[in-house]
Design a protein that fits this description.
10 helices, single chain, elongated, Serine Threonine Protein Phosphatase 5, Tetratricopeptide repeat, alpha+beta, Immunoglobulin-like, 6-stranded antiparallel beta sheet
């Protein structure tokens, strides 16, 4: 029995001894030791007074981390475990008007990591945000809230023309004429040719019966803003309204002829003539006819 089994055992052993891959090459795939490559970025965008977005891309799927802070010690970080090629991270809770350093890191699924060089950005002021909110409230008719936003902006940037213009119009719509005039004075100190401020000045001085100033402001405004003006924050305010304020101021000063010329710009069909009583309708004087015309125009501008 032993002699009959021995050759079979040898054969089995011989076959098994060759089961490793015929010659001893063996082994699996080579391990991944190559880190990702950053193909774009990192860059900072959407920077405001308290936040920024950091973006970058890698040539293979990798996770994301940004270390950031006011120095290259990077006191804070934000990370994502998702393996992606296009990376983004939102940095929030930043201090306004501050320089921030940042560096990005990405590791592939094998743990190979790439790091960028140090980059930096500077946060801005919240003034832009306050001004935007101020006009939003203004357009909604919430003038107290509008004024609060513009005042908050003024505390940070008292000579910002956008801020001063917001104060001018908000005070005007709140009938706070003394405050409006003070804001106008400050605004004209920054930009004496600011069209929207000249328009507001024409309205203010006409409302306060400072007619000489109203004439000067209205004429300057019409020269600056042209004949197709519409106020960005109130579509009902146009160049016709500015011209109407000028007409009132001219008439108040007794210059009805000049007022008539501007009335014809608003309504070319006006046919009143200073020396032709037949054009005065039921009125006995040219001045009376002009006063009636001005009242009629009031409802059309």
């Amino acid at each position: 029995m032993t002699k009959r089994l021995f050759p079979i055992i040898v054969l089995i052993v011989g076959v098994c001894s060759g089961c490793g891959g015929g010659g001893g090459g063996g082994g699996g795939p080579e391990p991944d030791t190559t880190p990702p490559i950053i193909t774009s970025g990192p860059s900072a965008s959407g920077i405001d007074h308290e936040s920024a977005k950091i973006t970058w891309s890698t040539d293979e799927d990798a996770n994301s981390m940004v270390k950031y802070g006011k120095t290259t010690s990077y006191s804070d970080s934000v990370a994502s475990a998702a393996y992606v090629k296009n990376h983004s991270a939102d940095l929030t809770g930043l201090d306004m008007l501050s320089l921030y350093h940042y560096r990005v890191y990405s590791a592939d699924e094998a743990g190979n990591m790439v790091a960028s060089s140090d980059r930096a950005f500077t946060t801005g002021s919240p003034v832009v945000k306050f001004v935007g909110e101020g006009w939003d409230f203004f357009e909604d008719g919430a003038y107290d809230s509008s004024l609060a936003r513009f005042r908050a902006a003024e505390a940070l940037e008292p000579y910002n023309i956008e801020v001063l213009e917001g104060l001018v119009w908000t005070h005007l719509y709140m009938y706070e004429f003394a405050e409006c005039e003070a804001a106008l004075e400050a605004a004209f100190g920054v930009d004496p040719d600011r069209g929207d401020c000249l328009v507001a000045a024409a309205f203010l001085y006409q409302a306060t019966e400072a007619f000489d100033e109203a004439i000067e402001a209205a004429e300057a405004a019409l020269e600056e803003v042209g004949s197709s003006y519409v106020f960005d924050h109130d579509d009902d305010v146009t160049d016709d309204d500015v011209r109407y304020s000028l007409i009132i101021a001219l008439a108040a000063g007794g210059d009805f002829v000049a007022a008539l010329g501007h009335a014809r710009v608003i309504d070319p069909s006006v046919d009143i003539e200073p020396g032709d009583p037949g054009t005065w309708g039921t009125h006995s004087t040219f001045e009376e006819a002009m006063i009636a015309l001005i009242e009629d125009l009031r409802g059309r501008v």
